[in-house]
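user: Please review this fold.
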Amino acid sequence: MGSRRGGCCGWLIVALVLALVATAAVVAIMKRKPGGGGGSSRRPKPLPVPGPPGAVDSKYGDSLGVALQFFQVQKAGKLVDNQIPWRGDSALNDGKEAKLDLSKGLYDAGDHMKFTFPMAFTATVLAWSILEYGDQMTAAKQLDPALDGLRWITDFLIAAHPSDNVLYIQVGDPDLDHNCWERPETMTEKRPLTQINAKSPGSDIAAEAAAAMAAASMVFKSTDTTYSDTLLQHAQKLFTFADTYRGISSDTYPKLQNYYNSTGYADELLWGASWLYHATGDQMYLSYATVENGKAYADWGRPTWFSWDDKLPGTQVLLSRVNFFGSNKASNAENSGLKSYRDTAEAVICGLLPDSPSATGSRTSGGLVWISGWNSLQHATNAAFLAVVYSDYMLTSQTAAVECSGKYFSPTDIRNFAISQANYILGDNPMKLSYLVGYGSNYPQQVHHRGASIPSDVKTGCKGFDYLHSTSPNPNIAMGALVGGPFQNDSFVDLRDNAVQTESSTYNSGTLVGLLAGLVTTSSIAKTFT
């Protein structure tokens, strides 16, 4: 639903023209339905509940390790145990004008902006991925880098919330930033701060930050109780702030509409309340999401696309978890609301499965769910993540099938859809190209990324645009970057100027990590996060 940012129309025009040429290179367009072949007119029997994590599938284990490296690539601040040889300390003075240390956090994409909204979403879905699939990450020896990436973001979020009703939502001026092409280690431009507060509200961003810190508080609860408690306190205060002082951030700051134009805050309030319910067990938050605001805000019965802007599908799956595994304290009204969330989650799932009567037609011939040209892989990745999570809820609860207009689909059918999207990303596509940089032998060489495109020993100043326009491969590999992805005809033009397809966004990595971790091995998931 929310599309990746609104700038760079010229790149889009160039890329569309080039795509017409690239179409000729798309050989062997798949005639089958990837992820399809399932479904039955009869309800199947429940499958047995898997045991502990079994053997690791090397494809998904290896690609998970690659994907997690992008969090290291995107780090700002004073680096600790730096694993990326061409990266160094940067943005050390961020926040000083407000006497804060906002040096940490992640750069948004191929630029050097820090946007709290998508960064917090990254943290929320990364924390969710760890909560669901921490055992699988451990089996693949990838839990520690996931925790490290998450904490680098939550450290920033804590620092960005210096008082109850203040949250810093942006570091840097996007106009200044985008008019420069340089390495982050050498940038000297002013990096002004933008905040939301009681008079300048942004309920969408505040509630997303609340969700991120509530989810992360559960991740760190068993290893660092003090840090976990700090996160939860911030989450509760941020949610109260978001709910009390209502407003959309991009209405408060219209310039945000050119980058992350939020379409509303109701979905983030439900999302934040749902995570706080899981983190605290406080029925107040469950009642908020189900009884008090469900009918008004949840848009039950109408499936949408999970993204940094639209949290409703994520909320539907997350609250389905409560419906699957029970809530002893839930009232009849709350349970009714939970069932409505689960029914809508199943509508989302039915729309994804290619053999479902209600399957979306928004896919490429190669089988990729495709919704928009800019950053096309975000929706496929997000959808596949929700699918693998939902299939595991079904397996663990021994739910035999979802019904899609009279046709039944098992957890295996749903998992197969997720596998089809993951495999497409990893190279099983008409271009035979891995869209995950650093994975496989054939991946994009001209990622639209400032730091990756400039040799680490070169000082360009602000105007290093020769490196943007160069036709040579990047001198540095942006390991783990998930590039924007193909056009609807499955074509891809590997040019750095083609930001529509070759720019990588940090928020894609959270759900990608969850998707790959869910496929590393089959196992049951925990029935509670705490």
Confidence is low (pLDDT under 50) at residues 1-32.
